[in-house]
Amino acid sequence: MRKLMVTALTGLLLLAAPASLVAQERPAAVETLRIDKARIDRMLAAMVADGRAVGVSALVWKDGREVYFGAQGFADREGGKPFRRDTLVQIWSMTKPVTGVALMQLWEQGKFRLDDPLARYLPEFAAMQVQDGTGTDGKPVWRAASRPITIRDVLRHTAGFAYGGGPTAAHAAFFAADPLNLDNDLAKFGRRLARVPLLSEPGTEWHYSAAVDVQALLVERLSGIKFADYVRTRIFEPLKMREAAWHQPMDRLPRFAATYVKQDGKFARQADEMTRRVNFPGAKLTMGGAGIVAPIDDYMRFARMLLNGGELDGARILKPATIRLMATDQLDPAIKEREWLMGKIDGGFGFDFAVRTARPATPDRNRGAVGEFFWDGMASTLFWVDPANRMAVVFFTQTLPFDGTLHTDIRKAVYGADYLGPPGD
Fold first, then answer.
1. Which terminal residue of the chain, N or C, has fewer Cβ atoms less than 10 Å from its own Cβ?
2. Do 344 and 282 lie in a common domain?
3. Whole domain around residue 304: which residue ranges?
4. E-strand stretches of 52-105
């Protein structure tokens, strides 16, 4: 569990604008992007052949139509089952954007303001502490945080929450509190997390964290609806995401992709027990930051909705301006501590998305276009939305530990190794 992964209102004038207008206001690509299907096929095959994945699949939607689907290798190597289009995959932290969309629906309804104190709606978070040095006894000294956590902090990972073990006393306190234990419901998760000191003052540092699970608790508290039921009825069903869910019926288990863990250069199959515990009836905790299982087509429908300015096939999920807000870098330049975020992208972070604000700086950087927003998952899954090229991409695998080279290479296969896209500001 400890390893689970995770600006201003620039679009106010577009609150009533059609999705096409949102796409038009994105920077236009200066290089014509053509999808080379054979190049993507070769890259997927190489990922399996060179031992970086047991199975992979990729789906590309561009200019209003599907332009590529391919799969290589096995979803279940021991059972001889190939990775297929209907394979069910644990997307882990790719759950986070779904949770962010759910919360921003409630923002559109006026249920909260972005800079409201979190404690206005979740009073358990009213008295957060941070470390203030170490006492003569060698124990940490705690003091009250200098300002309240805001909902904006929770959306952009600047609240100061931890996400597991680490080097500080606050990390140790998080580990001891065990807020993400599957036997907790969201309310119990919140009570336990609220007792854990913060890693830093709210708003001062970017720390990937349990903040998205707090978002799920907020959705539940503000809507009066259980979080999984809210997402199912307000997002999955309108988008016709027919199989995406936290808890799956047992008869779908044979379609699950097994998770493979690399040990000493070879892949070992992870025990199926965790899959059964997390993704089938019995677990009390529905995490906002992880847990959804989906086939690739379901997740592409979510990505297409984002690409299309919040609407898909007549189902309006968010307004175009809200998508623009979520996909705008929200990190103040003064926020210098960003953990490993900058290793993923030349840019920053919006609301539950990383956001590209500059072209790839060096040849080893991930290819992409300015204006792109994306996120990935612990088992090396990835999706991104590229408005400049009117494109969305979903990449599935079940590879541990997280392997960023797979993402670098699928991007090279989609864009070409030398692609830079439009210039940044």
1. C
2. yes
3. 12-95+245-415
4. 55-62, 65-76, 81-82, 89-90
Residue 390 three-state SS:
coil
Q: Beta strands 391-397 and 140-144: pairing type?
A: unpaired
Distance CA 105, CA 94 (A): 18
Burial pattern 26-56, b for ≥16 Cβ within 10 A else e, equals: beebeeebebeeebbbebbeebbeeebbbbb
Query: How far is the first Cα of the chain from the last one, in angstroms, to the nearest whole number?
Result: 39
116 and 62 in a common domain? no
Q: Answer positive or negative: Cα dihedral of 190, 195, 199, 201.
A: positive
For the cut 60, the answer to whether the pLDDT of residue 29 exceeds it is: no
In a domain, 100, yes or no: no
Confidence of residue 32 (pLDDT cuts 50, 70, 90): confident
For residue range 221-238, list pLDDT tens digits in order.
Answer: 999 999 999 999 999 999
Residue 188 pLDDT exceeds 80: yes
Per DSSP bridges, beta strands 315-316 and 311-312 are antiparallel
CA gap 359, 369 in Å, rounded: 7
pLDDT at 9 over 80: no
Q: Is residue 1 part of a domain?
A: no
pLDDT (average), residues 101-113 = 98
What CA–CA distances, in Å, run from 217 to 189, 192, 227, 324, 341? Answer: 9, 13, 7, 24, 25
* Phi, psi for 315 (deg, rounded to 5): -95, 115
How many beta carbons lie within 10 A of that of residue 366, not counting itself?
22
Q: Indicate if the pLDDT at residue 279 is higher than 80.
A: no
| Closest to 43 measured CA to CA, from 418, 419, 409 | 409
pLDDT in tens, 198-227: 999 999 999 999 999 999 999 999 999 999
The H or E element containing residue 321 is helix 320-326
